[in-house]
Amino acid sequence: YTNGSCKNEGDSGPTTGSRIYFGTCILPCCRCNDNDNQRNRAIRVPENLKQTNQTGEIIAIKECVMDAPKDIDISVHSDSRTYIEGLAKHLQDWEDRGFINVANTAEIKATTVRLREREAMTKLVWVKGHAGTEGNEKADELANQGREKPQDNIDLSVKQDFTLTGVKLSKVTQFLAYKAIRRKKMQTKTYRERMNRRATKINLGRAQACAVDLCGATPSEEALWKSICHRDFG
């Protein structure tokens, strides 16, 4: 069972945790506390990755697949319909589109590679959250541990033999082409320098201060940029 959670998502200073629950040990082991499986883990998603609940969910799935023996059939249970259905049903379409307009691209690619490296069957199962499912509830119990512990190192490297690059031309639309150009532009040095201009930072700081006065919360810079495009401000 895997799970992810984020504290203060959308605000300044969010922290994200992932959880993996394999179950209890079936063999006596003097190193185990209360007969817990040593593979049960609480993970702190490092700050260089996007701090969202969805990031925590996909990281948990990836780490679970990595921890399991490659030659044994496993079932990965998660209450994240986004990634259970995404990896099982939509992955081919995502790859055909070059992952354009798909969030957490690096994390999804790394998870896909780990799944394809396996030699045995991997079953992805969606479970309803907070419905009393023991494994899911146990994974939830590790939420605070993951968010509060020191940051973990998350390996997002991919082997080219197990992943596709580029975009299938038959899948390209005007909308996807625009998104691809926009994404490329946002990675340029000029764009990054523009976003870090002193005047820009001052205005963002003022907006955050006003938000604190009005509602007591400090929105992240990303949330502020997204709010500019909201229809209520059009």
Automatic annotation (TrEMBL):
State the source organism's domain of life. Eukaryota
The UniProt entry, under SUPFAM superfamilies, shows: Ribonuclease H-like (SSF53098)
Annotated GO molecular function terms are: metal ion binding; nucleic acid binding; RNA-DNA hybrid ribonuclease activity
The record places domain RNase H type-1 at 1-148
Q: Which reaction does it catalyse?
A: Endonucleolytic cleavage to 5'-phosphomonoester
Task: Spell out the InterPro entries in the cross-references.
Answer: RNase_H, RNaseH-like_sf, RNaseH_domain, RNaseH_sf
Q: Which PANTHER family match?
A: RIBONUCLEASE H1 (PTHR10642:SF26)
Q: Give the protein's recorded name.
A: ribonuclease H
The scientific name of the source species is Rhodocollybia butyracea
Organism ancestry: Eukaryota, Fungi, Dikarya, Basidiomycota, Agaricomycotina
